[in-house]
Amino acid sequence: MRRILFALLLTTVSLSADITPEGVERLEELRERFSGPTVRVQLLRGAEGAQVEVKGAYNVYDPRTGKKLDSAYLSSSYYMNPTVDGLKWGQEFPGIFQLLLVPDKNNTTVLVGGTEYRGMAYVYQIKGTLNAVNEVSIDDFVASLLSSHVSQDIADKEALAALAIALRTETLSWMAQGNNPYWDLKAETVGYLGSSIERRDAPFVEALKATRGLVVKKAKSQNLVDIHWFALGETMAPVLEMVQAAQEGKDARAILEKLLGNVQIVKIESLHS
After folding, report:
1. Cβ distance 183 to 40 under 8 Å?
2. Which of 8, 105, 196, 215 could pair covalently with 116 via S-S, beta carbons 3.0-4.6 A apart?
3. How far is the C-alpha of 81 from the C-alpha of 51, rounded, in Å?
4. Contact call for residues 186 and 41 (beta carbons, < 8 A)
5. By C-alpha distance, which of 259, 34, 244, 31 is closest to 165?
6. What was the pLDDT predicted at 272?
């Protein structure tokens, strides 16, 4: 639970054990761009290199020191690869072994290896290989994962809302179980495919908007409900039962109470209040 609270408070777990106080301060400032807690998802590990593109204006930082290394007002796309003494992306960054790419606008995306992501991207060198992590808001992560895990035929707003709340809850549980200082989850483990696969239909968009920041906790407790409905590429949630309940007029709260028992739907922030 302590790990969850750290995530909720947006405290920093650096990509480097020797991060400076200035680096900590810079990361905290950059995380203010997100409307809630974030999740860090490992995208690449041990790669020779990858095409990396920012589709709009951006800044490049050294997350260890917080120093701004570069900025651009237009999109940039270069092959990124490790060098003998750092990283190369359009230019060489000697003595710099990790870069943080931060778009100027929240709707600007970053492509890593051809896949599009919202949020920020850390790209770093470990033993001569390229590794990448996407830090994204939990709400955007849930929108992406739910889009790939649940059939587009499911279009009942309240059923989708219940699924979004459950998935957000399960995401926090996954994060609590992690103990890696570089990332919280692996994209390949949970089936994270970035932002380009997100559904845009009205029921889905409305369901995600209405449930932003909501999770399920046990009644009269600060503990999250233990949910195991989502796995790589599929969902084990009782979707048809949820759809039927929605068609009977039940809202997301009533659907989850019916399936999970004595629970409460609360804002993430209330878990540490």
Report:
1. yes
2. 196
3. 9
4. yes
5. 259
6. 57
